[in-house]
Amino acid sequence: MRNEAFDRATLIFSLFDADGSGRLTAGDFELMAERVIDAAADSDAAAKSAMIAAFRKYWATLAAELDSNQDEEIDYDEFIACVLSPERFGETVGEFADALAALGDPDGDGLIERPVFTALMTAIGFETDNINTLFDAFGPDDADRITVATWVSGIKDYYSPDGADIPGDLLVGKQPA
Ligand SMILES: [Ca+2]
Ligand SMILES: [Ca+2]
Ligand SMILES: [Ca+2]
């Protein structure tokens, strides 16, 4: 596993611990889903329902695969094992990526404007500067939009244990000065 993958997973753990308890629980994912849905002002009910379902499936997969001591919480040590076995999470991450990117494209034209992207990523908890740097790295067009496909593959890369020097690393906040 690459150090970058470890750093990315560590950041995700801290963000998904939405209530700051130091462990992941079903409640964290409900809280996070609520925040993200609230940020998707222009999305329709179907897209919001798909996102909520994706968060719940994400939690169910984590709980099934990583809760070694079966206390219905995922602590940091349990969570970090996920980056070692991406084959157990690929499908869930894929559905999560599709649902999140769909929320970024409420008008369905396949393009995501920067303010929509920023609102969703802020709701998840990423830093504004890092979000903007990531958006730039995705190569926005002249109208400052990226494609849904670019974001979906960016999310999948983020979870890849072998990914290094990828745009998602910009979210970790270790950018050169
Ligand atoms: Ca928590
Ligand atoms: Ca546990
Ligand atoms: Ca759009």
Automatic annotation (TrEMBL):
Tell me which domain of life the UniProt entry assigns to the organism this sequence originates from: Bacteria
What would you give as a GO molecular function for this chain, any one? calcium ion binding
Fetch the SMART domains from UniProt. Answer: EFh
Where in this chain does the record put each EF-hand domain?
4-39
Protein name per Swiss-Prot or TrEMBL:
Ca2+-binding protein, EF-hand superfamily
The opening ranks of the lineage are:
Bacteria, Bacillati, Actinomycetota, Actinomycetes, Pseudonocardiales
